[in-house]
Amino acid sequence: MAGPAANPNPAPPSSPFHPLSSLSHPLGYCQVPVFFDVEPRDVRHQTAPFEPAFLEHEKNTELNEETVNGWRGALRKAGELCGYELQYEANGS
After folding, report:
1. What are the CB-based long-range contacts (under 8 Å, 24+) for 36-40?
2. Is-contact 21 75, C-beta < 8 A?
3. Would you call 47 helix, strand, or coil by DSSP?
4. For residue 24, which of 68, 77, 62, 63 has the smallest C-alpha distance?
5. Distance CA 8, CA 17 (A)
6. Residue-wise pLDDT tens for the chain (93 aa)?
7. Are the CB atoms for 49 and 8 separated by under 8 Å?
8. 8 A C-beta contact, residue 79 and residue 41
9. What does each C-alpha distance from 20 to 10, 33, 37, 92, 93 come to in angstroms?
10. Is the Cβ–Cβ distance between 27 and 35 less than 8 Å?
């Protein structure tokens, strides 16, 4: 089983632990995304906390359009999967 995690404060794209890299597992894996303090629809459409980051990525001359579009596609796929929605609550519950 593989579990990509989505949260509003993802690792930087240059990180080897970038969450989008976990979406390319070999066939036979069951992927169950974890949506931590973010709505699946925001992951699917790259809105709310993801939108400003993608605007910055699109302006970044070190990144090509294909890379950014690949990230968008991976998030779209993750947002379409059934998974766990976890909301952070200050009281620890």
Report:
1. 36/5, 36/6, 36/7, 36/86, 36/88, 37/7, 37/8, 37/86, 37/87, 37/88, 38/6, 38/7, 38/8, 39/85, 40/79, 40/83, 40/85
2. no
3. coil
4. 77
5. 16
6. 455 556 555 556 554 445 555 555 556 677 788 898 899 999 999 998 899 999 999 999 998 999 899 999 989 998 999 999 988 766 555
7. yes
8. yes
9. 9, 11, 17, 28, 28
10. no
Amino acid letter, 81: L
Sign of dihedral through CA atoms 28, 23, 45, 92? Answer: positive
Q: Which helix (H) or strand (E) holds 36?
A: strand 34-36
Whether this prediction's pTM lies above 0.70 is answered by: no
Where do we find the tokens 């629809």? 41
